[in-house]
Design brief:
Order of helices and strands: HEEEHEHHH
Number of helices: 5
Oligomer: single chain
Helix content: 40-55%
Shape: elongated
Number of strands: 4
Distance between the termini: 84 Å
Structural class: alpha+beta
């Protein structure tokens, strides 16, 4: 008697050309973003931490904070691409941009001059400690 436990599925379906093209494009974007994250970390103290946030229409923000307190943002076309790029770069991710991560951010004169404090009569730039 023959063993009938082997599934008799037909050949696996090939992905549609547009799906394969989209996958290749996403992989290129992930590599490019991962390299940008590594470059940021290298130029800002050797390491970085970050947080992912949904922006709009599927896009995502990768907020970066370098070991020296400098910060920056990257934009990814989706949360999935952002997460994969962060993983490839070895970025330590935080759930929120508050508390421990926010305390590491160091702002400079430009940021202080653009904040609402100066518009409300506050100091233009705090004294450096």
């Amino acid at each position: 008697m023959a063993d009938d436990t082997t599934p008799q599925d037909g050949p696996a379906e090939k992905p549609a050309p547009s799906d394969a093209r989209a996958d290749r494009k996403a992989a290129r974007l992930e590599r490019r973003l991962a390299q940008q994250i590594r470059d940021f970390a290298k130029s800002h103290g050797g390491s970085a931490e970050g947080q992912l946030a949904h922006i709009a229409r599927g896009t995502a923000r990768i907020a970066l904070v370098g070991a020296n307190g400098e910060w920056g943002n990257l934009v990814a076309p989706s949360m999935d691409v952002a997460r994969k790029a962060a993983e490839k770069a070895g970025l330590t991710l935080h759930d929120d941009f508050d508390g421990e991560l926010a305390a590491k951010v160091r702002t400079g004169p430009y940021e202080w001059s653009r904040m609402a404090g100066i518009q409300l009569g506050g100091p233009a730039n705090p004294a450096d400690n």
